[in-house]
Amino acid sequence: MKKITLVLTLLAFTFSFAQTPEGTWKLTPQAGALAVGPTQGSAGWWQNSAGDVTTRACLFDDQYVFNSDGSFQNVLGTDTWLETSQGVATEGCGTPVAPHNGSAATWTYDSTANTIVLNGTGAFLGLAKVFNGGELSAAGTTPPASITYTVTSISSTNMTIDIAISGGWWRFLFTKEVAGLNDNVFNAVKMFPNPAKDVVQFSKHSNEPLDIQIFDMLGKSLIAHKNVQSAVNTSSLRTGVYVVQMTLGTKATTKKLVVH
């Protein structure tokens, strides 16, 4: 009887800490974080490259926030990845457009069915254009009021999401932001001022060498410096938005830089 009681207690403890998507997530900054193919989990048609993490930094820094009160937010910042179906001439980074601009939404998670349902026109995971059974293909097309995603795997740090479209499947890989879990480059390096004009300053709390590379929004490298000690001259950059890749030892990350 004592053994049975112990087993039931352990089971109750396990289920009380069952993993849910509650928290803040970002697309995993690696090749294959976005992939589409003819079958679930396949990347036979397309997947992002490692370089796309830089050229599409406006997408990889977007946050997908599952709040504890059941509300959901797409936190897109000043720019995100836009598709032609959203009214732009060519796909690329730009100011978020309605309804894919962080409009109010809610979320529900079914751990038995392994599904996440987002309720709210414009709410999405991964790519704004993807919905159950298809993709938005024309400007002005109204997205559905609700989207259901398959949760293929979920842990305290990583989540794999699949969704079926017409004749194929999209897959999105996410990493959870956990405060204090990692001493990452965002915490180890400070970049200022931002917006900047002629000079950008960098400070670091590490003895590891800091390498800096600045790209335009098309992915062209414009400035590159190794073992940066403090300042980088940016007077050659025109007014606009750029991507700064910072490598500290073996760690790397990107930040957006506004030049005026």
List keywords for this structure.
mainly beta, Lipocalin, 2 domains, eight-stranded antiparallel barrel, four-stranded antiparallel sheet, 10% helix
Show the helix and strand layout.
Blueprint: H1 2-16, E1 23-27, E2 34-37, E3 46-47, H2 52-55, H3 57-60, E4 63-66, E5 71-75, E6 80-82, E7 92-94, E8 105-110, E9 115-119, E10 130-131, E11 134-135, E12 146-154, E13 158-165, E14 168-176, H4 185-188, E15 189-192, E16 199-204, E17 210-215, E18 221-225, E19 231-233, E20 240-248, E21 251-259
Antiparallel strand pairs: 1-4, 1-14, 2-3, 2-14, 4-5, 5-8, 6-7, 8-9, 9-12, 10-11, 12-13, 13-14, 15-16, 16-19, 17-18, 17-20, 20-21
Strand content: 35-45%
Mean pLDDT over the full residue set: 85
> What gross morphology would you assign?
globular
Query: Which residue ranges are poorly predicted, with pLDDT under 50 across at least 5 consecutive positions?
Result: 2-17
Main pleated sheet: 8 strands, antiparallel, barrel
| Beta strand count | 21
The CATH class assignment of the largest domain is Mainly Beta
Quote the CATH topology of the largest domain: Lipocalin
What is the radius of gyration?
21 Å
* Name given to the CATH architecture of the largest domain: Beta Barrel
How widely separated are the two ends?
73 Å
Strand pairing plus helix content: what structural class? mainly beta
SSE order, one letter for each helix or strand: HEEEHHEEEEEEEEEEEHEEEEEEE
Helix content: 10-25%
Count up the domains: 2
The main sheet orders its strands as: 1-4-5-8-9-12-13-14
Number of helices: 4
